[in-house]
Amino acid sequence: MGEEEAISKKEQCELLAKYFEDLAQPKDNVNFNNEKLLNCKKRCKIIKEIAKASTDTEVTITKEDIRKAINQLNTKKAADEYDLASEHLKHSGESLHEILQETFNQILLEEKVPSTFKTGTVSPILKKGKAFYEVENYRGITVTSVIGKVFEYIILDKSNLMKSGQSPLQFGFTQGLSPNMAALILSEACSEITGKQTIFVTTLDSQKAFDVVSHVILMDRLYHYGLNLNLWNIIEELYSGVTSTVKWKGETSTSFEIHQGVRQGGVLSTHLYKAYINELGSHIGNNYVGCPTCADDIVLLSLNREEMQEMLNIVDNYSKDHRFNIHPQKSNVIIKTGNKRKDPEDSDAFKMGNNDLNCTDRTTHLGLTRSTKDETRINVDDRISLARRTLYSLIKTGVHGSNGLNPKTSYRIYQAYVLPRLLYGLETLHVNSKEMSLLSSFHLDTLRKLQSLPKRTACASVYLLLGALPLIAEIHKRQLSLLFGVLNSDNETIRSLAMRQYMSGRSTSFFTKTAEILEMYNLPFFLELCEKKYSKIEWKKRTKSAINGHWTNKTTPRM
After folding, report:
1. How remote is the C-alpha of 87 from its chain's centroid?
2. Are the beta carbons of 381 and 441 closer than 8 angstroms?
């Protein structure tokens, strides 16, 4: 921190702990709205009094709740500070379920959460591309009590947190929705721009978003969302007296207190953060698709400069009310025009409070580069470069042709580690024939090398020997999966967008292209999919069978 240095592992551990402790203390800022904070404190005191006299039905926990929560635990994760892992609970018997049921119901009755549920071990993770010697470049991931996680899963289920009242443009950590849907909305909005039209795209970076959540303001919001008062008291108690330690290279720091933020790694954390930020999306999102959001990744869209500035003013006021900062250097505005050869004329800076937001030629949103020109080509080049680096990193494991692993084993590893990086997010972009050719060349060349085949080997042979698909088929699978997710979600905003875009018939629209793909593989028509006749598993099996059958017939030599 600052000019302070740490040489030994213990010193480094304590320095990191000092940094995370400082991050967990509320900071005052002349720009923050202190009146909002004081009002929330007053309201929370009143809410506590209301809770004492409340006639809300007391929440009870059943054995089925315990089983369901334990099944939700992720496996192969680090053990907690008591050396308990999720596998211990998953392989436990009925007797443990009875003990947990009795314990959890007693917690709800007394509205007192054990201190063991409030402690955690922070593992510092270096942010991508950042210098390892600066503590500010580390993100803290907290490992909490496994039994506490079971309790939090139950509280999450009982509270119905954010299942009603959530902004329709919030796609992060929401059942039935995915970040790709937020990326798709941005792509569809940009694809509509033609001729002299202009669209302003602003990506916002919230500084330490999860770490600076005000507990008082959060609890005030939860009450207004209609949270059961018994559960309100439990969550308020869960975030009182929270402590953490830092684990670093075998060393453990002294314990420190947490007075703000929702811990990254906690079961409730992402849902509580969505509740905290929800009003912003609801306010702006009431207008068309102006604010597609994925947790703390926010993008603003507008066809009008004045409207974009007004949206930025709303964000600025909201950040001051909720005591977080928008990073002006890491937030960007790009201006896309219908005329790809002509630069936008209206490129003056926007204002975020007292800071300028300059217009640039590219920005990043959900791992995809958004740019004023050649957007898809830039992403394709980035994906190929990343896939190639990933492939090189696997060479030592035997993923290569001569004297390496069995080609089919190498192909499975390629499918698991390289292909997802090669294709990430491309289903949401308009990939033309030249860009598809670049991707296909990398894919085909890799499959040849895995089998030690000469370059002149026929494409059909390269695919058939491994049972592999051409790259275009891999993209089609991902596009049809995303289409199914959109049309089968309960989110009426994105379903309405899908129907509007399909009916418009624009050739650059994702929904027009996927309608053609459905016809290509003799799958149900677009409108039939809207009727929600198929389960996710049924649709996955059907598309896999149709795509595999189509390309097998196309590549198998005729006798």
Report:
1. 26
2. no
- Scan for tokens 């009094």, then name that residue: 49
Q: What radius of gyration do the chain's Cα atoms show?
A: 26
Burial (0-12, 13-18, 19+ Cβ within 10 Å), 332: buried
**Cβ distance 81 to 141 under 8 Å?**
no
Select from 155, 150, 140, 319 the least CA-distant residue to 236.
155
Alpha-carbon dihedral angle through residues 356, 360, 363, 369, given to the nearest 10 degrees: 170
Helix axes 433-450, 459-466, angle to 10 degrees: 60
Q: What is the model's pTM?
A: 0.89
Other Cβ atoms within 10 Å of 210 Cβ, number: 22
Q: Which amino acid is at 191?
A: S
- Give the β-pairing of 251-252 and 242-248: antiparallel
* Residue pLDDT tens, the chain, 559 long: 556 888 899 999 999 999 999 999 999 889 999 999 999 999 999 999 998 887 777 789 999 999 999 999 999 998 999 999 999 999 988 999 999 999 999 999 999 999 999 999 999 999 888 899 899 999 999 999 999 999 999 999 998 875 667 788 888 888 888 999 999 999 999 988 888 889 999 999 888 888 999 999 999 999 998 899 999 999 999 999 999 999 999 999 999 999 999 988 789 999 999 999 988 876 675 555 667 777 778 899 999 999 999 999 999 999 999 999 998 888 999 999 887 666 666 678 899 988 898 899 999 999 999 999 999 999 999 999 999 999 999 999 998 878 889 999 999 999 999 999 999 999 999 999 999 999 999 999 999 999 999 999 999 999 999 999 999 999 999 999 999 999 999 888 899 999 999 999 888 899 999 999 999 999 999 999 998 889 999 999 999 999 999 999 988 765 4
Give the separation between CA 495 and CA 48, rounded to whole angstroms: 40
Q: Domains in the chain, ordered, with CATH? A: 9-167+210-271 (no CATH), 179-207+272-371 (3.30.70), 375-555 (no CATH)
User: Any idea which residue has 């453990």 for tokens?
Assistant: 252
Cα distance between residue 119 and residue 143, in whole Å? 9
- Alpha helices, DSSP H only, in 451-535? 459-466, 471-487, 492-504, 510-520, 526-529
User: Could you tell me where the DSSP H helices lie in 160-244?
Assistant: 179-191, 215-224, 229-238
Other Cβ atoms closer than 10 A to 226: 11
